[in-house]
Design goal:
This protein is 69% helix and 0% strand. By secondary structure, the protein is mainly alpha-helical. This is Tetratricopeptide repeat protein.
């Protein structure tokens, strides 16, 4: 699944205590370098206001003229330029280059949830699945206001990261959350993965049942284990049924929306899986 997302609100939390400056929604590919730099500076500096009659105005002026203040101001400007460059890389899908710039900025400033989601995307494409999961799980609950399709992509990558680490039980609900948000031609991918999640759950349940029965030595224990085995068998059968339903929905979606030479092998595989689940 190709990741496409517009560079979002330029807001960085924690850059200045007590300030949060929302930016504007924009596409990285359509922004000039100068505009990106200006917005980057806004993102890293926050908002600022003061009262003209403040008794501490003269003191504030002296602070701003001090060498240490100017040094920090210079660092922040440089970081803003780095942020703008990172967003350019992200919009161009140069995720490794974006990661190299964005990761240090996230350590120095607590980036907003959307930027941390971008960072998680970069980690996902670098196969750093454990780190991607940590960030996705942290920020997704804070991103419920973003466009549904963008949110569906975050769910997809989070689920795919768990799937890659063979944590199928954790991946399963995330694919489920993706389904109502994604486009119709993307649903076959989610159902395909869900089919395997249920299939692995069935195999895990069956293996657990076998271990319980083989490990019993006394008749009373054997009876208890057999009872547990019956429940596990029922659970295994239910998971296989769900797997079959998901593969059927996946096949239906591929045939309807993506019946192309590129998906020919995937379609053949699903038919083979369904044949084995009859």
């Amino acid at each position: 699944m190709k990741f496409r997302v517009l560079v979002g609100s330029l807001l960085v939390w924690g850059s200045l205590p007590g300030w949060a400056m929302p930016g504007s929604s924009m596409s990285g590919s359509s922004m000039s370098g100068r505009t990106m730099q200006s917005l980057g500076i806004l993102a890293l500096s926050g908002g600022r206001s003061f009262c003209a009659f403040s008794p501490s105005l003269e003191h504030s002026k002296k602070i701003e003229e001090s060498a240490s203040f100017q040094e920090k101001k210079g660092d922040r400007k440089e970081d803003a330029e780095q942020l703008a460059r990172a967003l350019d890389y992200f919009a161009s899908e140069k995720f490794h280059e974006c990661l190299v710039l964005l990761q240090p900025l996230n350590r120095r400033y607590k980036l907003n949830p959307r930027y941390r989601a971008y960072l998680a995307v970069c980690l996902y494409y670098e196969w750093e699945y454990a780190e991607a999961i940590r960030l996705f799980d942290e920020v997704i609950p804070q991103l419920q206001g973003v466009a549904p399709h963008e949110l569906s992509l975050y769910y997809w990558m989070d689920a795919e990261s768990y799937f890659a680490l063979q944590q199928y039980a954790r991946a399963l609900p995330l694919y489920g959350k993706m389904l109502p948000l994604c486009r119709d031609n993307e649903k076959p991918d989610a159902y395909y993965r869900l089919g395997f999640c249920h299939l692995f759950a069935a195999e895990s349940s069956g293996a657990s049942s076998s271990e319980k029965v083989s490990g019993s030595s006394e008749s009373s224990e054997a009876s208890e284990k057999a009872s547990g085995s019956s429940e596990s068998s029922g659970s295994s059968a239910e998971e296989r049924k769900k797997a079959k339903e998901c593969f059927e929905l996946s096949l239906e979606g591929y045939l309807k929306y993506r019946n192309t030479p590129k998906e020919k092998a995937r379609i053949a595989q699903i038919r083979h899986m369904l044949g084995g689940l009859k």
